[in-house]
Amino acid sequence: MSCDSQVVERLSGLVSSFICHSAGHLPDDVKTRLAQMKEVETEGFAPSIYDVMQKNMEMADKLGRPSCQDTGLPQFFAKVGTGFPYLEEIEPALIEAVKKATVEAPLRHNAVEVFDEVNTGNNVARRIPWIDWELVPGSDKLELYFYMAGGGCSLPGFAKVLMPLEGYDGIAKAVFDQMTTYGVNACPPCLVGIGIAGSAEVAAKLSKKALLRPVGSHNDNPKAAQMEKDIEDGLNSVGLGPGGFGGKLSVMGVNIEQAARHPATLAVGMSTACWAHRRAGIIISPDFTYDFFTHKGVTL
Amino acid sequence: MSIFHFTTPVTDEDIRKVHIGDVIYLTGEIVTGRDDVHHRVVVSGKEPPVDLKGKAIFHAGPIMKKISAEGEEDKYKVISVGPTTSMRMEKAEAEFLAATGTKIIIGKGGMGPKTTKGCVDNCAIHTIFPGGCAVVAAEECVETEGVEWLDLGMPEAMWKLRVEEFGPLVVSIDSYGDNLIENNKVEFEKKKQAALESLKGKLDYMS
Ligand code: SF4
Fold first, then answer.
1. What is the pLDDT of residues B105-135, one digit of tens each?
2. Contact call for residues B117 and B139 (beta carbons, < 8 A)
3. What was the ipTM of the complex prediction?
4. Which domain holds residue A243?
5. Domains of chain B listed by start with CATH number
6. Residues A187 and A226 placed together within one structural domain of the fold
7. What is the pTM of this model?
8. Suppose A148 and one of A72, A76, A240, B45 were both cysteines; which one would form an S-S bond, judging by CB atoms 3.0 to 4.6 Å apart?
9. How many domains does chain A have?
10. Is there a contact between A235 and B195 if contact means CB atoms under 8 Å apart?
11. B59 is known as an active-site residue
């Protein structure tokens, strides 16, 4: 099969506009949560920090600029309908879209080749943009998430395998340890993504997928949903506040995703998203109409 | 908490006036520099191409745009510039202060004991600009005066920026050796222990 260059051009044009918009605009759920948190944070440094954050969002919108200078390493998470007609074209279109958006947004040059230690200057490099693939039987659509993995917010990330007897308390401890140390560098209030599984790489990947779920959503397992709430309340009681200056709250939320574990292992992974959580989601149909569902009402 | 308005070059007298938790708005010249700049100055021992005496080093890797036409002298504009994690420079900052005469460090998150001592020894301070607020910061940069060490790449180069009322800069390490974020971390640690204690029994899904 060969690649249809017209389709690549059309798809990459759409995805590039999608990236550019998400560089300057936070998703609806994040904006709503930040506004709620701003209401609660009435003491100390917190109100003035929230004021600057608010001003920054408004100015990024008005001036059409990336809201944070760290536009991250580009990552895509694709859920591809098995009936989507342009399977050949998706990957070249995503790579092309990153190159275009790097010039148009503009995005910071963030892709450094490992070992050669060279910044490629266009955000395209070995396995970057990172693309995660899932197949969706019975669908003819492409559901695409884009995430800007910034430096500061990637820094607290970790994965490790616990002994089962360390229990879910061991998971909580590992998360708390990381959040009260590295967390202050990740531009809090963060969204915390936790993956629980049988091995490190699955837990790590699920922790990032947890960050793609909306702020305020809940795991479909009631026990997991309760654990999300318990850890969220616990982290909030630590009171990192915005920027680590202290406050009544610490996090925008805690999202957990899980896969079954081995009887002899309990693996945990954690990823954090900073307050500037630039996650964008779009569903693209075969006729190129789209639903930009994380940023309602936006026309690309 | 007091609010100060300083102009570069900042003097020892100015620095002595401020304590952790105070807020500064800075006018004058600031220069960006992060991992690679610190490495060149401190580890490789290269003479910095910019006079930093009395000025501020900004831990930041900006997005810059060339605005000069082909054939003209290079001219740049700041699109987006916010603080990066200061802790990455912990290893080299004290030596950097001593080598350059920099008076103000601007970044995000705190810095450790080595930099705290460096601030005491060199009468300097570390300050925090709110993280992720890069358009606000960009608009407080009124002019890009030039760039040095551009061979390091756009985010790593030394960008010389003229700023007006640049801030809020929250003082996180003062010249008396106090460290706001380290103090906060002690508090966070205590509250963490309490939080983990109260989680006990709640997460026992294995029984
Ligand atoms: S942690 Fe997020 S908001 Fe902070 S500098 Fe990095 S990308 Fe920007």
1. 999 999 999 999 999 999 999 999 999 999 9
2. no
3. 0.95
4. 152-273
5. 3-180 (3.20.130.10)
6. yes
7. 0.96
8. A72
9. 2
10. yes
11. no
